[in-house]
């Protein structure tokens, strides 16, 4: 019973019964205004967003918004397709221009090459003709004056001894085989002429004509002598 009657005063006082003076418990300073109202603002914003979302779903406005987005995407796709088509058309026109200019250049080059080829062929043909003429001249025996060639002088003037006089002139100039004769039939020319049979006798016939003062020199086949002088008035 004595133990039950003991109270706070029954114990002796110690240091814990006389604490130092000062604030009791944890002390915190005042919080800023924004920190105090921020939770309310967040709750209000979330509530507003939820309300707007619910209104869009209920009213069907979200379909209109999605439709506009699809329309803008389609328009953007069409624009990009048109741009690609324009680029392709531009590339095609550029390629056609390049092809046309290349074709024109090729045609011009081909025409120039054809002209050059024709000129080359013409030059080659001219050179071939010249070479052929030179070869023909070289293949023919060279004509030189041969005063030992037989020369027949025919007197068709009616002047007696006229052929002998011309024969003497030829012999005086160095001819060693000269004979004189009168016409013995056949066709005579209408002018004084020196005939020769072969091409090798041409130079000799020209020398005979020059010695006798005769201007006409002709080649005739079937002569009895290599060179025949026909004297006419």
From TrEMBL:
<feature type="domain" description="LytR/CpsA/Psr regulator C-terminal">
    <location>
        <begin position="149"/>
        <end position="231"/>
    </location>
</feature>
<keyword id="KW-1133">Transmembrane helix</keyword>
<feature type="compositionally biased region" description="Low complexity">
    <location>
        <begin position="75"/>
        <end position="140"/>
    </location>
</feature>
<feature type="region of interest" description="Disordered">
    <location>
        <begin position="72"/>
        <end position="144"/>
    </location>
</feature>
<dbReference type="Pfam" id="PF13399">
    <property type="entry name" value="LytR_C"/>
</dbReference>
<protein>
    <submittedName>
        <fullName>LytR family transcriptional regulator</fullName>
    </submittedName>
</protein>
<keyword id="KW-0472">Membrane</keyword>
<feature type="compositionally biased region" description="Basic and acidic residues">
    <location>
        <begin position="1"/>
        <end position="16"/>
    </location>
</feature>
<feature type="region of interest" description="Disordered">
    <location>
        <begin position="1"/>
        <end position="23"/>
    </location>
</feature>
<keyword id="KW-0812">Transmembrane</keyword>
<dbReference type="InterPro" id="IPR027381">
    <property type="entry name" value="LytR/CpsA/Psr_C"/>
</dbReference>
<feature type="transmembrane region" description="Helical">
    <location>
        <begin position="37"/>
        <end position="58"/>
    </location>
</feature>
């Amino acid at each position: 019973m004595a133990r039950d009657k003991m109270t706070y005063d029954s114990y002796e006082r110690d240091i814990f019964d006389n604490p130092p003076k000062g604030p009791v418990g944890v002390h915190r300073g005042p919080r800023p205004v924004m920190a105090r109202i921020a939770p309310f603002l967040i709750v209000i914003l979330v509530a507003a967003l939820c309300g707007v979302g619910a209104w869009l779903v209920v009213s069907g406005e979200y379909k209109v918004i999605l439709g506009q987005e699809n329309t803008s995407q389609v328009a953007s796709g069409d624009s990009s397709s048109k741009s690609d088509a324009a680029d392709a058309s531009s590339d095609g026109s550029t390629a056609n221009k390049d092809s046309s200019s290349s074709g024109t250049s090729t045609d011009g080059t081909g025409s120039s090459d054809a002209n050059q080829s024709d000129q080359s062929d013409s030059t080659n043909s001219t050179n071939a003709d010249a070479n052929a003429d030179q070869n023909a001249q070289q293949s023919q025996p060279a004509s030189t004056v041969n005063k030992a060639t037989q020369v027949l002088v025919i007197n068709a003037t009616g002047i007696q001894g006229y052929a002998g006089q011309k024969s003497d002139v030829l012999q005086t100039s160095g001819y060693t085989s000269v004979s004189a004769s009168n016409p013995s039939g056949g066709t005579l020319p209408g002018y004084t002429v020196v005939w020769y049979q072969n091409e090798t006798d041409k130079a000799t016939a020209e020398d005979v004509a020059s010695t006798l003062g005769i201007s006409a020199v002709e080649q005739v086949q079937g002569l009895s002598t290599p060179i025949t002088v026909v004297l006419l008035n």
